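To whoever is on call:

I kicked off a structure prediction for a single chain this morning and the downstream step that reads the tokens threw a length-mismatch warning. I double-checked the sequence; it's 507 residues and nothing unusual in it as far as I can see. Pasting both halves so you can look.
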Amino acid sequence: MTSLLNFLASLSIVLLTIVSAGHALISKRDPKASMGWIALCVLVPLGGPLLYFFFGVNRVRTRARKLRPEEDEPPYRIYDGRAEQELVRAFAVNAADCAELVNISGAVTKQPLVGGNSVDLYHNGEQAYPAMLEAIRESRESLYLTTYIFETNTTGRHFIAALGDAARRGVDVRVILDGIGEWYSLPRAGTLLRRAGVAAERFLPPRLIMPTFHINLRNHRKLLVADGVTAFAGGMNIGDRHLAENLENPARVVDMHFRLEGPVASLLEAVFLEDWAFVTGQHRSGTDYRRKPPYISESDPPDGLARENGRFEGIRPPGTTERKSMALCRVITDGPNDDLDKLSVILNAAVTAARKSITIMTPYFIPPRGLMAALQAASLRGIQVSIILPEENNLPFVHWATRNLLWELLMWGVEVYYQPPPFVHTKLFIVDGYYIHIGSANIDPRSLRLNFEVAVEVYDRPLAAALADHVKRVCRVSRRVTLQEVDSRPLPLRLRDSLAWLMSPYL
């Protein structure tokens, strides 16, 4: 009897190994990830398949799209390449600069490019949080918030109180919190929000009953959308850590956030509502930007609209008195579902299309091989390629992995700078002084392959100039990294950095 049980146990382990390794072989798109999981399943009996089951299997399916009847797909979200080129000619300073990227990103995302947007930047929580709280207080119809980390310290309590007040005055308030990110602070924000009368849901939370533990499939998006016309997006979470001017806070983080007003806000609203449908099973139609001011049309502009220097001036959404820019914007969603690799493809295309300069500021930099090659080729073409990273990183192993690959860029003339402490969490991608990416994604495997991210590509020279000035100021106080410095690391550090780099697909 004992021999039979041992045989059945051994057979079960063998079958589990074959099934898990076969699943990794068929389902993984990255050959390195597939090979790593297959090796783990084969070399670590029982333990390897179990680890693959909990951390390697992508169980996410975008139920939100399945919940929406096919015929109910909003017509304004359908990509129309010819209409977009007409829009570019109406708004862009030089349409020839934009045409290539407009075509590529439109074809990849199938999301519309919309004009008549205002984009304002805020440095740190001292600037961003008051503006966000004001938008919450002034909302009248809807408030949708999603964030990865929602701390319940002083800053978090201000947001919880403001959201609760909005719900009590009849605003449709909904909040999505990441099921892992919420545990960064106790008591959890979701509990306090529900006590305040706010509809709060958790994205793929870990559960013991009906066990689920999706540590690698996180909602990393940061969005606040008010009334379908005003949105905040970028890389900033909610919490005291982003009050960077408080020098007594050892955990302070430097960051940047953006306010977007105009048609793009309703498209960001649609991203939230798709996530809401995923976590709740409840679908709700969003705002049609064509029915909210500002109305954009080349042939039929609003009354009083003046066209100057190839750009429309004078369009104002409700509640604003000044329009600082008339940006073209497109929303890009990325995640381990139907959106997989969309952001990577567009970043590669933007680097390839660059003619003068490429600037990347990111806290975590472990780019895929395709993007590395594109950056190397751009530098060899004479493009100024600058990468600005934090010298002090809150994830040391990611910093070590990055140091192991920098030589591949430095040897071909790419400029790399380390920003001085405190930790800088800002994410920027700027090409040729007119094309910008803002949003939640880092340049690493977790953001580009595992997390659910959102970015907004912006065609706007004034905003690009303001961000370029910011980068220049940062570079003046930063330390430029040299190839000699990287090559002269002591052997123990080189081994450490190489091991971290070896694990980079899983960081």
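Update from on-call: the warning came from a stale cache, not from the record. Cleared it. Sanity check on the structure: Confidence is low (pLDDT under 50) at residues 61-71, 293-325.
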